[in-house]
Design a protein that fits this description.
2 strands, alpha+beta
Length: about 100
Amino acid sequence: MGSRSSRWPYVRKLAWDRDRKARAPCHICGMAIDYHLDPSSAPDSWEPDHLIPVAKDPERELDLNNILASHMRCNRARGDGTNGENELGKRSRIW
């Protein structure tokens, strides 16, 4: 993904505090996140997910509105959105 902004740890903490207080579920699977676990420490732990991947729009890296609660496992399975999967409008085959 490249180098992160020096402000990323601060913004990540803001997102963690916001999501933990709201008990936000994983935006990918909809299931509860175990907020008792340290962030990004276990499959069911909280991890910030950029709805619009930083790889596609680096300007949105620190935008709290672009950072959603996810399970570590769901976020990592989704990837950075640059592999061409799950894109709306992608043709299933050439006709």
